[in-house]
Design brief:
The protein has 273 residues and is mainly α. The protein contains ten helices and no strands.
Length: 273
Protein backbone atom coordinates (compact mmCIF):
# COMPACT_ATOMS: atom_id res chain seq x y z
CA UNK A 1 0.00 0.00 0.00
CA UNK A 2 1.28 3.48 -0.84
CA UNK A 3 2.47 5.66 2.02
CA UNK A 4 0.29 8.74 2.55
CA UNK A 5 3.05 11.15 3.50
CA UNK A 6 0.74 14.06 4.27
CA UNK A 7 -1.04 11.96 6.90
CA UNK A 8 2.27 10.67 8.25
CA UNK A 9 3.63 14.19 8.75
CA UNK A 10 0.32 15.40 10.16
CA UNK A 11 0.44 13.01 13.13
CA UNK A 12 4.21 13.34 13.62
CA UNK A 13 4.34 17.15 13.63
CA UNK A 14 1.17 17.77 15.63
CA UNK A 15 1.95 14.88 17.98
CA UNK A 16 5.40 16.26 18.75
CA UNK A 17 3.87 19.64 19.57
CA UNK A 18 1.22 18.10 21.83
CA UNK A 19 3.78 16.05 23.74
CA UNK A 20 6.21 18.96 24.01
CA UNK A 21 3.65 20.86 26.05
CA UNK A 22 2.66 17.72 27.97
CA UNK A 23 6.22 16.94 29.06
CA UNK A 24 6.92 20.57 29.93
CA UNK A 25 3.74 20.75 32.00
CA UNK A 26 4.58 17.47 33.71
CA UNK A 27 7.93 18.90 34.82
CA UNK A 28 6.10 21.82 36.39
CA UNK A 29 3.54 19.62 38.16
CA UNK A 30 6.29 17.46 39.64
CA UNK A 31 8.21 20.56 40.81
CA UNK A 32 11.19 19.69 38.61
CA UNK A 33 10.94 22.78 36.42
CA UNK A 34 9.12 26.06 35.96
CA UNK A 35 5.80 26.20 34.11
CA UNK A 36 5.89 25.85 30.31
CA UNK A 37 7.51 28.97 28.90
CA UNK A 38 6.28 31.26 26.14
CA UNK A 39 8.77 29.67 23.74
CA UNK A 40 7.51 26.17 24.51
CA UNK A 41 3.87 27.19 24.29
CA UNK A 42 4.32 29.00 20.97
CA UNK A 43 6.32 26.10 19.54
CA UNK A 44 3.66 23.61 20.61
CA UNK A 45 0.88 25.79 19.16
CA UNK A 46 2.66 26.21 15.81
CA UNK A 47 3.41 22.50 15.48
CA UNK A 48 -0.15 21.47 16.30
CA UNK A 49 -1.60 24.06 13.90
CA UNK A 50 0.83 23.28 11.07
CA UNK A 51 0.30 19.57 11.56
CA UNK A 52 -3.44 20.11 11.34
CA UNK A 53 -3.04 21.91 8.03
CA UNK A 54 -0.94 19.01 6.71
CA UNK A 55 -3.80 16.63 7.39
CA UNK A 56 -5.82 17.93 4.44
CA UNK A 57 -2.99 17.87 1.92
CA UNK A 58 -3.65 14.24 0.99
CA UNK A 59 -7.01 15.21 -0.51
CA UNK A 60 -7.06 15.75 -4.26
CA UNK A 61 -9.57 18.54 -3.58
CA UNK A 62 -8.68 20.23 -0.30
CA UNK A 63 -12.05 21.97 -0.18
CA UNK A 64 -13.71 18.59 0.36
CA UNK A 65 -12.48 18.59 3.93
CA UNK A 66 -15.61 20.60 4.70
CA UNK A 67 -17.74 17.67 3.57
CA UNK A 68 -15.84 15.30 5.86
CA UNK A 69 -16.35 17.65 8.78
CA UNK A 70 -20.11 17.34 8.36
CA UNK A 71 -19.91 13.87 9.93
CA UNK A 72 -19.28 14.29 13.70
CA UNK A 73 -18.59 10.58 14.19
CA UNK A 74 -15.79 10.39 11.62
CA UNK A 75 -12.14 10.16 12.57
CA UNK A 76 -11.38 13.29 10.55
CA UNK A 77 -13.95 15.30 12.49
CA UNK A 78 -12.67 14.07 15.86
CA UNK A 79 -9.05 14.86 14.97
CA UNK A 80 -9.95 18.31 13.63
CA UNK A 81 -12.04 19.08 16.71
CA UNK A 82 -9.24 18.04 19.05
CA UNK A 83 -6.70 20.12 17.11
CA UNK A 84 -8.99 23.13 17.42
CA UNK A 85 -9.56 22.57 21.13
CA UNK A 86 -5.86 22.06 21.82
CA UNK A 87 -4.91 25.21 19.90
CA UNK A 88 -7.45 27.22 21.88
CA UNK A 89 -6.11 25.82 25.16
CA UNK A 90 -2.53 26.67 24.21
CA UNK A 91 -3.57 30.17 23.16
CA UNK A 92 -5.40 30.73 26.45
CA UNK A 93 -2.40 29.43 28.40
CA UNK A 94 -0.10 31.82 26.52
CA UNK A 95 -2.39 34.77 27.32
CA UNK A 96 -2.48 33.80 31.00
CA UNK A 97 1.31 33.52 30.97
CA UNK A 98 1.75 36.87 29.25
CA UNK A 99 -0.59 38.58 31.71
CA UNK A 100 1.07 36.88 34.67
CA UNK A 101 -2.27 35.51 35.81
CA UNK A 102 -2.68 33.38 38.91
CA UNK A 103 -0.69 30.17 39.11
CA UNK A 104 -3.86 28.16 39.79
CA UNK A 105 -5.47 29.37 36.56
CA UNK A 106 -2.36 28.64 34.52
CA UNK A 107 -2.01 25.21 36.07
CA UNK A 108 -5.64 24.31 35.43
CA UNK A 109 -5.40 25.30 31.76
CA UNK A 110 -2.00 23.64 31.45
CA UNK A 111 -3.25 20.33 32.85
CA UNK A 112 -6.17 20.46 30.43
CA UNK A 113 -3.73 21.00 27.56
CA UNK A 114 -1.60 18.09 28.76
CA UNK A 115 -4.57 15.71 28.84
CA UNK A 116 -6.10 16.81 25.53
CA UNK A 117 -2.73 16.58 23.81
CA UNK A 118 -2.10 13.05 25.05
CA UNK A 119 -5.58 11.85 24.08
CA UNK A 120 -5.20 13.51 20.68
CA UNK A 121 -2.10 11.48 19.82
CA UNK A 122 -3.97 8.28 20.66
CA UNK A 123 -7.00 9.37 18.66
CA UNK A 124 -4.81 9.94 15.59
CA UNK A 125 -4.00 6.24 15.56
CA UNK A 126 -7.45 5.01 16.54
CA UNK A 127 -8.95 6.55 13.40
CA UNK A 128 -7.17 3.83 11.39
CA UNK A 129 -8.85 0.95 13.19
CA UNK A 130 -10.91 -0.69 10.46
CA UNK A 131 -11.91 -4.24 9.66
CA UNK A 132 -10.99 -3.76 5.99
CA UNK A 133 -7.32 -3.46 7.01
CA UNK A 134 -6.63 -6.49 9.24
CA UNK A 135 -3.04 -5.44 9.99
CA UNK A 136 -4.38 -2.23 11.51
CA UNK A 137 -7.26 -3.75 13.44
CA UNK A 138 -5.51 -3.84 16.81
CA UNK A 139 -5.53 -1.46 19.77
CA UNK A 140 -1.73 -1.59 19.71
CA UNK A 141 -1.78 0.68 16.64
CA UNK A 142 -3.12 3.82 18.38
CA UNK A 143 -0.94 2.96 21.36
CA UNK A 144 2.10 2.89 19.07
CA UNK A 145 1.05 6.27 17.63
CA UNK A 146 0.77 7.54 21.20
CA UNK A 147 4.19 6.21 22.20
CA UNK A 148 6.16 7.35 19.16
CA UNK A 149 4.62 10.82 19.31
CA UNK A 150 5.80 10.91 22.92
CA UNK A 151 9.35 10.03 21.87
CA UNK A 152 9.43 12.90 19.37
CA UNK A 153 7.93 15.34 21.88
CA UNK A 154 10.39 14.25 24.56
CA UNK A 155 13.35 14.95 22.26
CA UNK A 156 11.97 18.38 21.42
CA UNK A 157 11.34 19.13 25.09
CA UNK A 158 14.94 18.25 25.96
CA UNK A 159 16.29 20.42 23.15
CA UNK A 160 14.21 23.46 24.14
CA UNK A 161 15.20 23.11 27.79
CA UNK A 162 18.86 23.23 26.72
CA UNK A 163 18.28 26.14 24.33
CA UNK A 164 16.63 28.13 27.11
CA UNK A 165 19.50 27.26 29.47
CA UNK A 166 17.26 25.95 32.21
CA UNK A 167 18.90 24.84 35.46
CA UNK A 168 20.46 21.40 35.83
CA UNK A 169 17.46 19.91 37.62
CA UNK A 170 15.11 20.90 34.80
CA UNK A 171 17.48 19.66 32.11
CA UNK A 172 18.11 16.37 33.92
CA UNK A 173 14.38 15.83 34.29
CA UNK A 174 13.92 16.53 30.58
CA UNK A 175 16.59 13.89 29.96
CA UNK A 176 14.65 11.44 32.13
CA UNK A 177 11.50 12.21 30.14
CA UNK A 178 13.40 11.47 26.93
CA UNK A 179 14.35 8.08 28.36
CA UNK A 180 10.73 7.48 29.33
CA UNK A 181 9.40 8.71 25.98
CA UNK A 182 11.84 6.60 23.99
CA UNK A 183 11.19 3.50 26.11
CA UNK A 184 7.43 4.02 25.95
CA UNK A 185 7.63 4.34 22.18
CA UNK A 186 9.74 1.19 21.94
CA UNK A 187 7.41 -0.92 24.09
CA UNK A 188 4.21 0.21 22.38
CA UNK A 189 5.73 0.03 18.88
CA UNK A 190 6.96 -3.49 19.68
CA UNK A 191 3.45 -4.46 20.74
CA UNK A 192 2.10 -3.30 17.38
CA UNK A 193 4.87 -5.02 15.42
CA UNK A 194 4.18 -8.27 17.26
CA UNK A 195 0.43 -7.98 16.66
CA UNK A 196 1.02 -7.23 12.98
CA UNK A 197 4.00 -9.57 12.74
CA UNK A 198 2.68 -11.82 9.95
CA UNK A 199 1.95 -8.79 7.76
CA UNK A 200 5.38 -7.27 8.41
CA UNK A 201 7.11 -10.58 7.63
CA UNK A 202 5.11 -11.02 4.43
CA UNK A 203 5.74 -7.50 3.17
CA UNK A 204 8.29 -7.14 0.38
CA UNK A 205 7.97 -3.40 -0.04
CA UNK A 206 10.44 -2.09 2.53
CA UNK A 207 8.29 -2.37 5.64
CA UNK A 208 10.95 -4.40 7.46
CA UNK A 209 13.57 -1.70 6.83
CA UNK A 210 11.25 0.91 8.34
CA UNK A 211 10.73 -1.31 11.40
CA UNK A 212 14.50 -1.64 11.87
CA UNK A 213 14.87 2.15 11.57
CA UNK A 214 12.03 2.56 14.08
CA UNK A 215 13.75 0.67 16.89
CA UNK A 216 17.22 2.00 16.11
CA UNK A 217 15.89 5.56 16.37
CA UNK A 218 14.01 4.86 19.60
CA UNK A 219 17.18 3.38 21.10
CA UNK A 220 18.98 6.61 20.19
CA UNK A 221 16.32 8.67 22.00
CA UNK A 222 16.78 6.59 25.15
CA UNK A 223 20.58 6.86 25.01
CA UNK A 224 20.51 10.62 24.45
CA UNK A 225 18.07 11.07 27.31
CA UNK A 226 20.25 9.00 29.62
CA UNK A 227 23.34 11.06 28.76
CA UNK A 228 21.47 14.34 29.34
CA UNK A 229 20.11 12.97 32.62
CA UNK A 230 23.61 12.30 33.96
CA UNK A 231 25.45 15.09 32.13
CA UNK A 232 23.13 18.12 31.72
CA UNK A 233 25.96 20.12 30.12
CA UNK A 234 25.62 17.93 27.02
CA UNK A 235 21.87 18.48 26.78
CA UNK A 236 21.98 20.71 23.69
CA UNK A 237 23.68 18.11 21.50
CA UNK A 238 21.74 15.23 23.04
CA UNK A 239 18.46 17.10 22.63
CA UNK A 240 19.12 17.77 18.95
CA UNK A 241 19.96 14.13 18.31
CA UNK A 242 17.00 12.91 20.38
CA UNK A 243 14.63 15.18 18.45
CA UNK A 244 15.84 13.92 15.08
CA UNK A 245 15.75 10.31 16.28
CA UNK A 246 12.29 10.74 17.78
CA UNK A 247 10.92 12.20 14.57
CA UNK A 248 12.55 9.43 12.52
CA UNK A 249 11.00 6.82 14.81
CA UNK A 250 7.55 8.36 14.54
CA UNK A 251 7.81 8.55 10.75
CA UNK A 252 9.14 4.98 10.54
CA UNK A 253 6.23 3.53 12.50
CA UNK A 254 3.68 5.27 10.32
CA UNK A 255 5.47 4.39 7.09
CA UNK A 256 5.59 0.72 8.10
CA UNK A 257 1.91 0.87 9.01
CA UNK A 258 0.96 2.13 5.57
CA UNK A 259 3.13 -0.43 3.82
CA UNK A 260 1.47 -3.36 5.59
CA UNK A 261 -2.02 -1.95 5.15
CA UNK A 262 -3.06 -4.80 2.85
CA UNK A 263 -6.83 -5.16 2.45
CA UNK A 264 -8.67 -8.44 2.72
CA UNK A 265 -7.96 -10.98 -0.03
CA UNK A 266 -10.66 -12.76 -1.98
CA UNK A 267 -10.61 -16.39 -3.10
CA UNK A 268 -8.55 -15.48 -6.15
CA UNK A 269 -5.89 -13.76 -3.97
CA UNK A 270 -6.85 -10.35 -5.29
CA UNK A 271 -6.95 -7.37 -2.98
CA UNK A 272 -10.44 -6.23 -2.02
CA UNK A 273 -10.39 -2.49 -1.39
Amino acid sequence: MEIQWALVLFTVVSGAGAWLFAFSMLGSLLKKDAAPSKMETITAFVLVAVGGCMSVMHLSHVDRILEALNHPTSGIFIEAAMIGVLCVILAVYFVLLARNSSEKARTAVGVLGLLVGMVFTYACGSSYLMEARPAWQTVTLPLAYFGTAASAGAGLNLLLKAVQKRDEQAVSFAGLMAVVGGALGAVLAAAFCIAAGPYVAAADNGAVAWVIALFAALAAVVVCGAVALKQPKNALAMGAIALVAGVVAAIALRAAMWLIGTPFMDFFLMALE
